[in-house]
Amino acid sequence: MSFLIVQNVNHTYFTAKQATKALENISFSIREGEFVSLLGPSGCGKTTMLSIISGLLQPTEGEVRIDGKAPDLKASSIGYMLQQDYLFPWKTIEENIFLGLKMKKQLNAESRKNALQLLHDIGLHGVEKQFPRQLSGGMRQRAALVRTLAVNPKILLLDEPFSALDFQTKLKLEDLVFKTLKQFHKTAVLVTHDIGEAISMSDRILLFAAKPGRLHKIFEVPEDLRRIRPFEARSKESYSILFNEIWKELESLENS
Predict the structure, then answer these.
(1) Do 177 and 248 share a structural domain?
(2) Do 175 and 59 fall within a single domain?
(3) In what residue span(s) does the ABC transporter domain sit (predicted)?
(4) Are 191 and 47 in contact (CB under 8 A)?
(5) Is-contact 81 158, C-beta < 8 A?
């Protein structure tokens, strides 16, 4: 059964002088617990699509349903993780990870305990009283992930969350996020321009074309890659085969 349904979505940005069509007739669905990546060239509407899924943006036409309901970012059902960690520098890590719970009036002894346990499980034991400036970029992103997961969202939206990190840290965080989402059986949508990241983390990849943004092709990631962590997936033959297939599709889009 489909958990997320995107149906006939079109979106146009209007200014005083012109109208720019960002998305054209987008339809797809995602099963509960599935990890799907939106991949494509710059300007293909990936982030616009993610904003519509989150409820931050209302589409010009069409609709989105998450577990049968219209998306509402204020509800605890949606978690959003961005390129920057956006931790408040004047608050401790502990205070930062409690923010979502506090805003949603869910902060109590049990939720506080669960958030701190998740912080420990994700490899950040002992940093509770430290401030963001005392942590590395990768550690701050891990703290941001804990803050996002603390409210127990049904779906996690990831907007290039690793793009500002060095390559080694990026690979480690890919593994960590993959493991964490599988452990908690979370549905996730990742926006990325990195083919390798999309293949190694996803169950399916939705390739978008640009001007206007439209769904060009859907790729199924082989089962042998979906079962193992992203770092290991990158060394498999099926990874290289799919990488080359997607690369050729992207080239054909750029040349068309």
Answers:
(1) yes
(2) yes
(3) 4-231
(4) yes
(5) yes
Hey, which residues does 217 pair with through a beta bridge?
Answer: 207
Domain edge (last residue) among 152, 172, 207 = 152
* HSE value, Cβ hemisphere, 13 Å, CA-based, for 186: 26
pLDDT at 76 over 70: no
What lies within 8 Å, CB to CB, of 77 at 6+ separation is 66, 67, 69, 153, 154, 155
Whole-prediction pTM value?
0.89
Q: How far apart are CA 237 and CA 131, in angstroms?
A: 43
- For position 59, what pLDDT does the model report? 94
The answer, yes or no, to whether residue 73 has pLDDT greater than 80, is no
The residue count of the chain comes to 256
pLDDT value, residue 15: 83
Instruction: Say whether both 121 and 183 belong to one domain.
Output: no
Residues 22 and 138 in one domain: no
Are residues 176 and 247 both part of a single domain? yes
Q: Sheet containing 61-66: which strands, arranged edge to edge?
A: 19-31, 2-14, 61-66
The number of beta carbons lying within 10 Å of the beta carbon of residue 183 is: 9
Residue-number span of the structural domain to which 17 is assigned: 2-77+155-255
Integer Cα distance of 31 and 145 in angstroms: 22
Query: Amino acid identity of 146?
Result: V
In the numeric block, the tokens 């007739």 are attached to 25
CB distance 46 to 208 below 8 Å: yes
Structural domains of the chain, count: 2
**Beta strands 155-159 and 187-192: pairing type?**
parallel
- Pick the closest to residue 208 from 200, 219, 199, 222 (CA basis): 219
Compute CA distances 101 → 30, 67, 139, 184, whole Å: 27, 22, 20, 18
